[in-house]
Specification:
It comes from Flavobacterium aquariorum. The chain is built from 14 helices and 13 strands. With about 375 residues, it is α/β, with parallel strands linked by helices. It has a seven-stranded parallel β-sheet, with helices on both faces. It has a six-stranded parallel β-sheet with strand order 10-9-8-11-12-13, with helices on both faces.
Length: about 375
């Protein structure tokens, strides 16, 4: 098959990281794979290079991402290349592709992945008719969790073209990198208990304050590391200063080596208000170290049991669970064993095969 994926950019989000993993697999399986990017200026170099090295062709559209003239570029591209499948991700790329499809003739089938349980457009009911038109242009909408499907069906008043395919991670590569990092990574002070949270600094969806508050209840040999970027990082830093915790909390910025960090840390935590399907959770479960996540949509359905969860916003429970893991080697070991067994179902090869099977079904 000749396949085009279309996304805003190859930035630091979960959808972008996912494409850097699945597109090379599709290419390796003998398909002709292209990637169209709406704004190359935000690309992560490592993601871009991984895709290029696999032989996938990257097409950088010339108009700016929010410029409707990108639609014209898409029309010419699709008519020229005659793709069998075009798979869109994120807003506004999904809009431009849907509108471009009105200017046929071409026989290409369209697919979109819905990556989040919520988006800002759903705050405005006046947008619902437009959204329904846009989504109807796609043969299938892949929802990354059942809750994503439920929420989208409620918004669109239909679930006729919706299905669920869970995201995955490259377990083989992750496990190899993680194993190699355990004894070589020297970022963390091994005399301390090092807690790592990997998340975008966005107060709408992420909850850095809860883990900061939890740290106040932990002994001074517990240190906290934040990996990630985002618009609200200064708000978090200001809050940390007010709590007099500057000396115990470290900001690592964007990191392309998250698998190393997660495996070198003592405990991985994700404090969040909601997720689509949390790639951070899956990676933490594969890291060989204990994980604790907020008991919220997008996290609670992808952990082995309740031992891996704490009540959303409950920093006392989080602190107590961190203490229990650090003080009880048997609990620590059992959580790691449970995580390793559970995460096998999220292997990225299984996910990619489900995508390709769907492509073949709607192409026929």
């Amino acid at each position: 098959m000749k396949i085009l994926h279309y996304i805003n950019n190859l930035g630091s989000g979960g959808a972008e990281k996912l494409l850097s993993s699945i597109l090379p697999i599709m290419q390796e399986k003998g398909h002709i794979v292209h990637l169209a990017i709406g704004n190359k200026n935000k690309n992560i170099r490592e993601y871009e290079q991984a895709i290029i090295d696999s032989g996938v062709k990257i097409i950088n559209l010339e108009q700016s991402l929010y410029n409707p003239f990108q639609i014209i570029q898409l029309i010419f591209l699709i008519r020229k290349e005659k793709f069998d499948i075009i798979h869109a991700h994120l807003f506004p790329s999904q809009y431009w592709l849907a509108i471009a499809s009105l200017f046929k003739p071409f026989k290409t089938k369209l697919i979109k992945t819905e990556h989040s349980v919520f988006n800002e457009r759903r705050k405005y009911r006046l947008l619902r008719p437009l959204e329904k038109i846009i989504y109807q242009r796609y043969s299938k909408i892949i929802c990354i969790t059942e809750q994503v499907k439920i929420n989208l069906a409620k918004w669109l008043h239909t679930e006729s073209n919706l299905l669920v395919i869970h995201n995955g991670i490259d377990l083989k590569q992750f496990n190899a990198d993680a194993k190699n990092s355990i004894n070589t990574y020297d970022l963390f002070d091994k005399s301390n208990i090092n807690i790592l949270m990997t998340a975008r600094f966005d107060t709408i969806s992420k909850d850095h304050k809860t883990i900061v508050n939890a740290l106040k209840l932990l002994p001074t040999n517990f240190s906290l590391f934040f990996a990630g970027e985002g618009p609200d990082i200064d708000k978090v830093k200001e809050y940390i200063s007010l709590q007099n915790l500057d000396s115990r909390i470290y900001f690592l910025g964007y990191r392309p080596d998250i698998q190393y960090l997660m495996s070198a840390a003592d405990i991985n935590v994700l404090s969040t208000h909601f997720e689509g399907l949390s790639g951070v959770t899956l990676e933490a479960l594969a890291s060989g170290k204990p994980f604790l996540g907020s008991n919220v949509t997008g996290v609670n359905s992808i952990v082995p049991n309740e031992h891996f969860l704490f009540e959303n916003g409950n920093y006392i429970e989080l602190a107590n669970k961190i203490k229990a893991i650090s003080n009880n080697s048997l609990l620590n070991e059992q959580m790691t064993i449970d995580a390793k067994a559970f995460i096998e179902q999220f292997d990225i090869n299984k996910m990619t095969n489900q995508y390709l099977k769907l492509y073949q079904e709607i192409k026929c």
